[in-house]
Task: inverse folding
DNA sequence: ACAAAAAATGTTAAATTCGAACACTTTATG
DNA sequence: CATAAAGTGTTCGAATTTAACATTTTTTGT
C-alpha cells in the first residue's frame, strides 16, 4: 500500500523540516530506497516538499522561513516597531482622515487598530490590503508609480492624488532624523510624497526606532518644526533636546522589552 | 570581487527558476566551481535560493508555486485561467502602455510576462506588487478606494487617475458575457472603472473562461462591439456567433487540458 | 598604518548520491 | 478479463558533493 506510506511521509513533513532518504528507508524497511525516492518525487510535484541532495525539505518550513526573513531577519528592531505602532494606534481618532506611511513600521499597525470608523489613506499597497482584510470600509490607496523595493507609490500621479485628499492626522516613518537635516529618507521621489503629506496634515506623528537617530539620508522631507509628536523606543540623543523643546514636540518613549 | 558575482547570481534568480553550478561556472570562468557552490550556500542562508543537486532553485519561484497551489484549490477553472493568461501574454507589446484588470485571472499573468520593457497599469494592488517583484521598472498602480473583496480600486479618485493615463492595450476580465447584455460585472463602481478603461484603450482584450458565457450581471461596462479580442477556453455558444462576426472580434480558444 | 582575524578562494581525492535501464508486480480501467 | 497504468526492486556506472588543507584577499581593531 504505497498510499499509506506516502501519507505518512507527507505528515512527517508537517513537523519535520528535513528528512533524509536514509532515515525514511529505515522507517519503511519493506520497501527499497528507490521507492522512497519516488515517493518524494511525487510529494515534490504536489509542492509538499523539495528534493535536495540526500533527502527532502518540507515546503511548509521553507515558506515559513521566507516569511520570517521578509518580516524579521532583514528588518531590524521588530519588537521596537511593534511597541511603537501599538502606541501610535492610541492617537487614532475615529471619523478623522488618517494617513499611514509606507514601510515595515506602519504595516504592523493593522492589528492594533480599534474597531471603529476610520478613514485611512496610505501609499503602501500591502498595508491597504491589510486594512481591508480587517473589514475597514474606507481605505484609500494612493495611486502612482510603484516602487517595489520600498513598497510605496511615487511620482506625479501620487502627488496629484494626494493633492485631492484631506489629512487630519499623518503617521510617518522617516529613515533618519538628525538635528542638522531634520527628517530624511533615502530617495527623492519618496521624500516628495512625504513632503506633501506633511504639508497637508493637521497633526504629524513621526514613528521611529532608535536606529534612525542622528542619521541623515539624502532627502529631507520635513524639519523638526513640522513634527507634532515623535513616538520612539529610546530617549533622543541629548543634542536634540534643544530642537525638541524649541519646536514644542511631544516625545513619547515606549517600552519595547518583550 | 565576490560581491558583484553574488549579486549577479541573486538577480539571475529573480527571473530564472533554476540554475546549475555548471552554467554558473561557465558564466564566471575566473572562479572555480567550488566558489560558485559557496556563493549558493550564502544565498541559501539568505533564503534567496535552495540548493538542490546540481544547482539551486530560486526561492521566489518556489513560493509562487506554493501560493498558486494554495489559492488554486479554492478557485475555479485554474487551469483554464492559466492557459488563458499564458495566451494573453503573447499579445503584450514591449514599449506599449498596457492595462491589466483586477482579479484572479490577470493575477496569474505575472509569470508569463517576458523579460522586456513594458509599462503596466493596474487597479489590482496584489498584481502590482507581483509585477514589481519580477523586476519590472514601470508599474503604475491606480489609486482610489480599495474594495477588499474584489482586490480592486474604485471611486472618483480611481476614475480621475485613469483619466490621466493613456492605454494602448487593455486586458479585462468580465464576470459575465451574453448576447443581450454584453460584458458585465457585479457592481457599479467596478464597472465604472472598466468602462473608462475600455473607452481609453486602443485594443481591448477580454479574458474569460467558459463559466462566464451567457451570464449577465447587473452592470454592463462594454458592448460586444467594444471588444477586439476574446481569449477563452471553449467555443462561445452558437447564438453568439452573429455578434462576434458582426463586430469583427477575434476569438482565440486555448487548450486548457493539463 | 599595521597586524591579526575573518572571509574568500583553489585544488585535490575520496565518499556519497543519483539516475537510467530493465524486469517484475500490483492496481485501475473499460 | 485483458490491457494499460502505476508501483517496485536491483544494479552499476556517472555525476555530484564534501572535506581538508593551502593560499589569497578583505575587514577590523588599535
Result:
Amino acid at each position: 500500500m504505497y498510499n499509506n506510506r506516502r501519507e505518512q511521509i507527507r505528515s512527517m513533513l508537517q513537523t519535520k523540516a528535513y528528512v533524509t532518504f536514509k532515515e525514511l528507508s529505515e522507517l519503511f524497511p519493506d520497501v527499497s530506497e528507490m521507492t522512497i525516492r519516488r515517493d518524494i518525487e511525487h510529494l515534490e510535484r504536489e509542492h509538499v516538499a523539495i528534493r535536495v541532495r540526500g533527502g527532502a525539505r518540507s515546503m511548509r518550513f521553507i515558506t515559513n522561513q521566507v516569511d520570517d526573513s521578509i518580516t524579521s531577519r532583514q528588518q531590524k528592531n521588530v519588537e521596537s516597531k511593534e511597541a511603537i505602532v501599538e502606541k501610535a494606534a492610541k492617537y487614532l481618532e475615529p471619523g478623522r482622515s488618517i494617513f499611514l506611511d509606507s514601510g515595515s513600521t506602519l504595516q504592523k499597525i493593522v492589528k492594533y487598530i480599534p474597531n471603529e470608523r476610520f478613514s485611512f489613506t496610505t501609499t503602501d499597497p500591502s498595508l491597504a490590503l491589510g486594512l481591508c482584510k480587517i473589514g475597514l470600509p474606507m481605505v484609500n490607496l494612493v495611486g502612482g508609480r510603484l516602487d517595489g523595493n520600498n513598497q510605496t507609490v511615487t511620482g506625479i500621479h501620487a502627488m496629484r492624488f494626494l493633492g485631492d485628499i484631506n489629512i487630519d492626522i499623518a503617521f510617518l516613518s522617516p529613515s533618519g532624523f538628525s538635528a542638522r537635516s531634520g527628517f530624511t529618507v533615502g530617495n527623492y521621489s519618496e521624500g516628495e510624497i512625504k513632503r506633501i503629506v506633511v504639508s497637508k496634515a493637521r497633526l504629524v506623528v513621526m514613528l521611529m526606532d532608535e536606529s534612525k537617530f542622528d542619521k541623515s539620508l539624502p532627502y529631507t522631507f520635513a524639519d523638526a518644526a513640522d513634527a507634532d509628536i515623535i513616538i520612539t523606543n529610546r530617549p533622543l540623543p541629548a543634542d536634540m533636546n534643544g530642537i525638541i523643546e524649541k519646536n514644542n514636540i511631544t516625545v513619547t518613549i515606549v517600552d519595547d522589552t518583550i
The mean pLDDT of chain B is 87. The CA atoms of residues 62 and 239 of chain B lie 44 Å apart. Chain B has two domains: 2-62, 70-253. Residues 2, 31-32, 34-35, 38, 53-54 of chain B lie near DNA strand C (CB under 10 Å from a C1').
